[in-house]
Amino acid sequence: MLEVEEALAEVMTHARRLPAVDRRLTEALGLVLDEDVAADRDSPAFDKALVDGYAVRSADLAACPARLRVVDEIMAGNTPRCAVGPGEAAVIMTGAPLPHGADTVVMVERTRRVDDVVLIDDPGSTPGRNWLPRGREVRSGDLVLRAGAVLNPVRVGLLASVGKTLIRAFPRPTVAVLSTGDELVEPGQVPGPGQVRNSNAVSLGALVTSLGCEAVVFPAVRDEPEALRRAVAEGLRHDVLLTSGGVSAGQRDLVPGVLDSLGVSKVFHKVRVKPGKPLWFGVGPVREGETPGSLVFGLPGNPVSGVVSFLLFVRPALRALAGQPNKVEQYPRVRLARSVVHSGDRPSYLPARLIESAGQDGIGAAEVLDSAGSGDLRTVAAADGFAAFLAGDYRLDQGEIVRFLPLV
Ligand code: AMP
Ligand code: MG
């Protein structure tokens, strides 16, 4: 049986980034850029007023009060009609181009207007210039984003500002989510005797979309070889296939056999971890057009096991497919707010709530929650993630430091 680190290393060697594609900027949020992008013009593209007021020559403010003749009105989006000469001023709005001759903008609040004359008693103790020189933010040809940048809301705005409406980026991986189990009913149904609601399809689908990937959630399938085969074959058309349930040693645990029969080559089955031991991982046959085979994760059916397996193995793989740097995550450390007694020969991930954010030493505090085990979604819903414990029978006192696997 593989250790978590070994299993993760196996997953990551198969999780190569998808080929880059062209995408419209409006669809680019969350994608990883695969090109350097340069500014197509200076920004601002002209000397730009930063306040509403009057563009003046600072020499005219040497002796205040000043009386200046208003010769122009420059609105944002307009250009000045004339220069500002000695003894003159121009009305100017925030964002409008500064006229020739002017080197200061006096805020409108510090002026009085009488007909075509503006009176300035005091331009302010430190008037400043109140305008931004052309190119002060960025110069034409400067790189504004480099390949590898993750496109957050500000970065897509920046791309828009340089006129980049079509970008080269790594696509969102598409992920098929397929729950298996004779006992499953839809969340909107009342379970009969022995039945449970299919919550995994919802939580796994949500984990996928929360990472910016595209989830394709299949209807639950029965523990029946033919039905399972058809659904899995369909799922293998996606970059990643997540199955839920049916990977343990039970008589109706048909997933490994079906995957094998469809040419999915097994990389490992079972990991020394709790919860999540039955995890199965393999690579599907090469797809149409030489597209690499689907990465297949056979997740255990227990809801908490599925979540922990997803966070440990699927999340890093999806990030790699999406073009994010293929680095194995170093999870943050937390201090235990209460002592924990650990037992068992597998490393464990126990639901825990962060109760203090990281201090100067970079270490926060977390409280391990009392959980009823790998079906107890309610406790995990109150948690921020999972505290990681090494295998063995021991007690860790309050204040001891462990790693923390965050939910988001
Ligand atoms: P399995 O891994 O198929 O043996 O499933 C283990 C247990 O997980 C089952 O007995 C169910 O109680 C639960 N389970 C399996 N699939 C789901 C699902 N899709 N949603 C919620 N619970 C599930
Ligand atoms: Mg099952």
What features would you describe in this structure?
- The protein is an alpha/beta fold and 408 residues long.
- The chain contains seven helices and 29 strands.
- The chain has helices at 4-14, 153-161, 200-210, 225-235, 255-261, 303-321, 377-381; strands spanning 2-3, 21-24, 37-38, 48-49, 53-56, 66-74, 88-92, 104-107, 112-114, 117-120, 131-132, 143-145, 166-169, 174-179, 184-185, 196-197, 214-217, 240-244, 265-269, 271-272, 280-283, 295-299, 333-336, 340-342, 348-356, 364-368, 385-389, 394-396, 401-406.
- The strands form nine sheets. A six-stranded mixed beta sheet has the order 8-5-7-6-10-9, with no helix packed on it. Strands 17-14-18-22-21-19 form a six-stranded mixed beta sheet, sandwiched between helices. Strands 23-26-25-27-29 form a five-stranded mixed barrel.
- A hairpin with a 2-residue loop joins strand 9 (112-114) and strand 10.
- The chain is elongated, with a radius of gyration of 31 Å.
- The model has no long low-confidence stretch (mean pLDDT 96).
- The structure holds adenosine monophosphate and magnesium ion.
- Residues 180-181, 245-246, 252, 301 line the site of magnesium ion.
